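A.,

Following up on our hallway conversation. Structure tokens first:
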């Protein structure tokens, strides 16, 4: 009895001491205390209502003081679909949703996972809790003490403040910065163990901590209950535009409904905005069960062409209050002129829609079947007019993440488009209708796919399609007739989308207008059937939550679409040059791949209609294309312009000539800040182009590398969403920087360069430099540019 009493006394003492330690930590404002018994201390947890009106004091504090800190310090790592722990801090809904231990990108998933898209797959914080998302804000009793101690966000910020980064230039190996790193994602009850194991892993992770003023601002906000607000809603001018477009998109006739379904399936991840009103906000086009004028009732499905489960779908414009992140930001202007143009494309032509297509995957996943009634020329002109946006959908979409996903493209490719009408539209439409079965793509199999059987089926279908396409081209271009520069769309003399450059940055990618840099190794000439399949394969049909089979067959089928685009470009060259170039592009490829490529050139045997006069017809063709497209070429990235000082241009031109072994240690994407004595800042992007013998290997890319052929592209301004490194140099030292790049030999020599010119992620003024760069990036194009992402920032 005495022993039991003493045990009870000791236990009670420990409990009381624990509470006193906790309260002492609260009073000091610096101690972190994590426990599994928050409910014992602060009562049961339940989601809290945190949204305040924008014109209240709490609302103004959030919008004016808190949100800017979250954007500049937190969203730069927590704003995309691959945010660590799925913690998306770009909106109040994401902050309230919290975090999850489940990975979005899981390359070993055997069965598709339930989707967890913010705003779509759950409609309340309580619903997210049922999906195993846990809070980063306090959901226990709302007292100042509990709001701090039971907040994962506060504890992680405080952990960084109490354990700042060591003074060394490089982070220790204990920091894991790999793209596919093992994420810890501690829940509230796991913070004690986490802080003991990883005391330096406070937030911002592997970056300097917040300033004292920033920390105190967030601490006061969290202590007061973390109230949040949405910006004041749009004005009457914008409301009128919303009404106008929703009326247009919800016509009752089958013709109007088919058009709207087509537009939705191509705009569903766009950031739509009204360029005529001056409103700087963005909208998403969504499907609703309710018509315009009634509260929106979202109809979320895995894919935009999946069955919505209602008799009539309505297309509505939903205001997206999230902070745009450059990686996912794809602006698309809605204006009166565009609306009239869409009417002329889809409603004025004389064609009949007798019935709407079903949502059966064999129909809905095949745009050549689902939208067969819409004239091909209308669909092609629609895609062409915003060609960069169309390509950007897959470059910036969920599919383009990681090395395996992106080794389907070379590091720099020029992109051209086929001119509408070169083959009679009726003939093209009839041909595509005949080939519907062979134009099917693997995404119709759904999100859980058996890779081998699926791949063999669709590979055979593509082989049959290409054989038929070659026969049609032989008829359309006898003896090279019309197989000339006229086959290449010229943007109608004014549209800059006619010429694009795609950059691969190893595990991310970018697409910009213009023919950037010197002539690349390869180029694409994209026709309608290719671009439509690219969209349905990699955008509309791709499910980031799908299993490994779905992801592999998607990636493998893109090989066919790339080769088809390359073949279209090669068709403009003399037959012998086609074979020679193809062999150069696929050095070291397997015998089966060479046979496949050779069959392409055998099937289409018409000569080029272009008269070549040099021994390098590919280079000559590039020159001819640049001349044809000169009126529409975007030159904003050129160094040869008045806004680039002559001394900068001379040094940077020399930098762009560095190639081969010195580049083996270069980052993929560098933002260079050149400072002048007068206080002016100039910004340039340095892009490393990795050379390959071929890009036909899925997992053995290292074996196809040709590092001696690596090059640099240096441009004015910014390209890319994920900087690998920041460099900063006074303009008088720019030539010395170039010399040092040219003399790079190994990792140690690169570290010397970074020590002199780099702004490392450990730099005391990192955030000041980051703020300056992001401000300049946004100012360069306020509509198209958004927050950068630091998940690929190097530690070197």
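Then the amino acids I'd put at each of the 796 positions:
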């Amino acid at each position: 009895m005495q022993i039991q009493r003493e045990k009870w006394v000791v236990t009670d003492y420990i409990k009381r001491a624990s509470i006193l330690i906790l309260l002492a930590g609260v009073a000091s404002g610096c101690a972190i205390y994590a426990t599994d018994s928050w409910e014992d201390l602060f009562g049961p947890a339940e989601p809290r209502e945190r949204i305040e009106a924008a014109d209240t004091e709490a609302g103004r504090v959030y919008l004016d003081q808190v949100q800017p800190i979250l954007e500049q310090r937190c969203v730069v790592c927590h704003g995309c679909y691959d945010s660590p722990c799925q913690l998306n801090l770009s909106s109040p809904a994401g902050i309230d949703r919290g975090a999850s231990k489940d990975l979005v990108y899981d390359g070993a998933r055997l069965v598709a996972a339930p989707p967890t898209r913010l705003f779509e797959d759950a409609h309340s914080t309580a619903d997210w809790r049922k999906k195993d998302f846990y809070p980063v804000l306090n959901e226990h009793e709302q007292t100042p003490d509990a709001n701090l101690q039971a907040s994962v966000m506060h504890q992680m910020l405080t952990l960084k403040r109490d354990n700042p980064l060591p003074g060394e230039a490089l982070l220790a190996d204990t920091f894991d910065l790999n793209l596919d790193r093992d994420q810890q994602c501690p829940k509230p009850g796991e913070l004690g163990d986490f802080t003991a194991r990883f005391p330096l892993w406070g937030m911002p992770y592997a970056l300097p901590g917040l300033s004292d003023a920033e920390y105190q601002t967030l601490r006061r906000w969290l202590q007061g209950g973390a109230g949040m607000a949405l910006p004041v809603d749009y004005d009457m001018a914008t409301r009128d535009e919303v009404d106008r477009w929703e009326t247009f998109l919800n016509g009752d006739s089958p013709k109007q409904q088919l058009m709207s379904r087509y537009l939705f399936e191509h705009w569903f991840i766009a950031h739509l905005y009204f360029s005529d009103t001056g409103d700087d906000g963005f909208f998403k086009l969504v499907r609703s069960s309710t018509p315009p004028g009634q509260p929106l009732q979202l109809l979320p499905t895995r894919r935009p062409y999946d069955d919505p489960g209602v008799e009539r779908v309505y297309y509505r414009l939903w205001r997206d209050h999230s902070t745009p992140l450059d990686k996912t930001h794809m602006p698309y202007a809605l204006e009166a002129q565009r609306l009239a143009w869409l009417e002329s494309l889809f409603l004025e032509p004389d064609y009949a829609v007798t019935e709407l297509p079903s949502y059966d995957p064999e129909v809905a996943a095949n745009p050549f079947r689902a939208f067969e009634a819409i004239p091909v020329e209308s669909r092609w002109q629609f895609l062409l007019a915003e060609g960069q946006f169309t390509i950007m959908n897959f470059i910036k979409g969920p599919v383009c993440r990681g090395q395996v996903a992106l080794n389907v493209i070379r590091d720099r490719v020029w992109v051209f488009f086929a001119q509408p009408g070169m083959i009679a539209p009726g003939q093209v439409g009839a041909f595509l209708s005949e080939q519907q079965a062979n134009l099917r793509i693997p995404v119709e199999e759904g999100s859980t796919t058996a890779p081998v059987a699926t791949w063999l089926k669709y590979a055979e279908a593509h082989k049959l399609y290409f054989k038929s396409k070659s026969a049609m081209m032989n008829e359309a271009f006898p003896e090279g007739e019309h197989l000339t520069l006229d086959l290449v769309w010229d943007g109608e003399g004014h549209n800059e989308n006619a010429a694009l450059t795609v950059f691969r940055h190893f595990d991310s990618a970018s697409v910009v207008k213009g023919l950037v840099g010197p002539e690349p190794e390869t180029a694409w000439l994209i026709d309608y059937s290719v671009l439509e399949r690219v969209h349905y394969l990699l955008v509309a049909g791709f499910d980031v939550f799908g299993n490994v089979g779905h992801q592999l067959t998607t990636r493998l089928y893109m090989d066919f679409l790339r080769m088809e685009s390359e073949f279209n470009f090669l068709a403009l060259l003399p037959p012998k040059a086609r074979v020679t170039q193809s062999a150069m592009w696929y050095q070291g490829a397997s015998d089966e791949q060479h046979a496949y490529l050779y069959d392409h050139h055998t099937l289409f045997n018409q000569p080029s209609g272009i008269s070549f006069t040099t021994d390098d017809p590919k280079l000559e063709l590039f020159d001819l294309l640049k001349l044809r497209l000169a009126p529409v070429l975007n030159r904003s990235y050129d160094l040869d312009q008045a806004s680039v000082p002559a001394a900068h241009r001379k040094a940077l031109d020399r930098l762009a000539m560095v190639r081969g072994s010195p580049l083996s240690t270069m980052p993929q994407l560098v933002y260079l800040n050149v400072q002048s004595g007068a206080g002016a800042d100039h910004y340039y992007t340095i892009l490393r182009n990795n050379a390959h013998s071929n890009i036909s290997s899925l997992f053995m890319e290292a074996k196809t590398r040709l590092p001696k052929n690596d090059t640099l592209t240096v441009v004015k301004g910014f390209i890319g969403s994920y900087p690998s490194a920041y460099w900063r140099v006074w303009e008088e030292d720019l030539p010395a920087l170039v010399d040092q790049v040219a003399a790079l030999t190994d990792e140690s020599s690169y570290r010397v360069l970074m020590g002199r010119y780099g702004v490392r992620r450990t730099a005391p003024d990192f955030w000041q430099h980051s703020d300056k760069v992001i401000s300049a990036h946004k100012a360069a194009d306020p509509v198209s540019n958004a927050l950068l992402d630091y998940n690929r920032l190097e530690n070197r």
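The two ends are 64 Å apart (CA to CA). Curious whether your intuition agrees with the design.

B.
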